[in-house]
């Protein structure tokens, strides 16, 4: 099957540091791919590379087999690549609804009326309907995470890149978030999820990649990767779970 999103020979250098150092990655349509690795492994930088946040130092990125390497982030978003950020970035002074509608207009390329309908639908799907008229800055953590997800979904993605969206949540809140992500997966959305909270990640993903020092250490079935000796060593001998 042709990958929906792939990167070949990806390198991103900051001065002498190669934050991403020769990564090959391919995500299949409808797949949920997890990415783990110690702090500083290059996971977020890989997302930046895939989403077009900066020019690559080397490598090529394809969407549906077509090269998108030169395209800036807004163009990639319009083509169906959405991303959430480790630290959510809503417009704090706008309401929840306005935040989602802006994303639908700007990222989803919808005219005003269609963006209103789409935003309302996304708020329902993400459990935010009751919060629609609250300022984004007034939300609790779970709702901030939902809003981050909703803003990405509003752009009508085919692939969503989730960057540590589970961080800081209670177990009960994680359950809510995992259920939501599983619903998106069941609807056919392709998911790439960086997450330190492994038990949450393992409930969703089909395949796991472990990165360390800018490279892929291991990839394959989640269990095989977690059992890999190099992966265990990268976690300094601790039990990754
Ligand atoms: N804009 C930047 N300028 C300089 N160095 C950077 C920049 N962004 C990331 N780095 C460095 O690149 C390396 C990889 O960082 P990255 O944030 O991608 O790691 P990560 O695996 O996402 O880590 P974490 O799990 O802590 O989020 C780190 O050493 C980081 O300090």
TrEMBL record:
Per UniProt, the keywords (alphabetical) are:
ATP-binding, Nucleotide-binding, Transport
Query: Does the record bear ATP-binding in its keywords?
Result: yes
Q: What InterPro entries does this protein map onto?
A: AAA+_ATPase (IPR003593), ABC_AA/LPS_Transport (IPR051120), ABC_transporter-like_ATP-bd (IPR003439), BCA_ABC_TP_C (IPR032823), P-loop_NTPase (IPR027417)
Task: Please give the PROSITE patterns that the UniProt record associates with this protein.
Answer: ABC_TRANSPORTER_2 (PS50893)
Which positions fall inside the ABC transporter domain? Answer: 5-238
Pfam families to which the protein is assigned, alphabetical:
ABC_tran, BCA_ABC_TP_C
Q: Name one GO molecular function term.
A: ATP binding
**Identification of the protein by name:** ABC transporter ATP-binding protein
Organism, by scientific name, is Pararhodobacter zhoushanensis
